[in-house]
Structure formats: C-alpha cells, structure tokens
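Entry for N-oxalylglycine complex. Fields follow.
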Amino acid sequence: MIEVIPTGKALGAEIRGADLSQALDPADAGTIMDAWSEHLVLLFRNQFISDPELISFSRYFGDLDLCPPNATGKQYSAEHPELIIVSNVIVDGEPMGSLGDGELRWHTDMSNHPVPPKASILHALEVSSEGGETEFCNMYSATSELPEHLRSAIAGKWAHQDGTYDSAGAPQRSVEVAGVRTESPYARHPLMRRHPDTDRPVLYLGRRPKQYIVGMDAEESEKLLDALWAHATQRKYVWTHEWRVGDLIIWDNRCIMHRRNAFPADSRRTMHRTQVTGAAIIAA
Ligand code: OGA
Ligand code: MN
C-alpha cells in the first residue's frame, strides 16, 4: 500500500511503500502521478536501485533526454546515454560528474534550452557529511501571491535565458570551440508560462546570471528581475531536503525552482540523475 505523506511545507511529499526496483502496479503509478501533480516534488527513501531501474522508473514520467552537454564535456555512461552524474568526486584527475561541491543558486533546469526538461530525478548514492541540502521553491504559490505591479510589469514579456555558465557557475563546455569562447547558447521564454498539465499560469524565472528581459532598458530589466527573484525565493515558498543514501527525488521543472547548499570538498557526494523530456513553453 502506497502512502503519500506531505512535508507540511510549501511543497513536497514523501511516498512510502513503493519499491522502485519493480514495475509499479497501475493503481500505485496513478497514486504517484496524482501526488506529483499536487505536491510538485516527491521523495522516495531507501531505494537501493540500479541505473537500469532508475531509468525504468523515470520512464513512467515520459521519454528521457540524453545526457546534455555539461562542463566536463562528457557523456557519463556509454551503456546508459540517459544517465547524468552529479558528483564532486575526482577520478584520475577528472570530475566523475557535474556541479562540484559549491552552492548552486536558485534555478530551474536547462532554461537556456528551447525545450527544457519536464522533470528531473536525482538518486543519492553518496551524500555529504554536512551541507549539500537541496531546496525547492513552489512557483505556483509565488505566482498567486505576485504583487500586482510586478504582474503587470511582466505581462507579455519574455526573458533571455543564458547558458554561458551552469548552475555551479562553471563555463558550459558546449560554448567553447577549440579553446575559443563562442556566443553562449541561450533561449528566450515567456516570464509567465502555462503549465501544460494543469493549465495554470506560473512564473518562469529560469536562471539569473546574464539574464535580461527582452526589449526592456537594461537597468529597468535588472531592477524588475531582482524584484521577481526576491519575491519568488522567499522562505515561505521553500522546502529543504537533507539527503540520505537511497533517497530518490523527482521534481517538476515547470513549476518549481531549486538550489543546493555547498558542502565540504573532502566529502564525497554522488547522485545519478535522469531528466524527462519536456515540451515547448507556452506563454500564459
Ligand atoms: C541538478 C541540481 C542539485 C543537487 O541536478 O539539476 O541542481 O542537490 N542538483 O545536486
Ligand atoms: Mn538543477
């Protein structure tokens, strides 16, 4: 029997009684989908599953993206091209995965791409002795409490979502050609989008560095973006997760943002990750 236990915070629920190494009973899969739609981030504890099992579970949510270009320039697994590794562990002088040990600023995944992922899934294989918590913020709540002057200021506006740096601040290898920096890959998305499953309008902020509002005076754009980001990331919209080995978390990239606390460099932290293919963003 599957149980859904809400965090009691701004978003998130733990799902108990699911064994993700096995195919899901259709009724359980339905309960999980409904819980995801309601709570936006789901936590499953004690999932000591293999990569193929992680990939099979991920496919309940849709098709999977292949490992996207990253700061290490590598696809992580020849056997499983969908697999992404988030890790600070260095093997033979090379990082085994992305994102290092530093703080990750608030973002939603791959907003600089034309079709960002619908969902991302992290499975914890090694966790840091301290720090490394991941925080999630509820953009539906931030949207419904958006002050009227901010709502009208962004009506019909789009943002330039920059991809020069990843969320750890590392230059993305995909913009370096033969050692020469080329123009950063970017996308432009509406600041107010429609969630394709719920049809609700939701603020889409993406990633802050080098971001600007298209067609707006630069200084005005900075001021407005600062106000939007300050509003959306208030603590009342946030749930913080402290990782244990075997935790698996799925989040909805269309209506949440996330960040990570830094952790000690001498502490190993390794997550295996998949991302579920999204659809083009529709303005609300
Ligand atoms: C990610 C990410 C956060 C973390 O994988 O997209 O932001 O806690 N990870 O490692
Ligand atoms: Mn991320």
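NOTE: Residues 86, 99, 104, 109, 120, 122, 134, 167, 258, 260, 271, 273 surround N-oxalylglycine (ligand 1) (CB under 6 Å).
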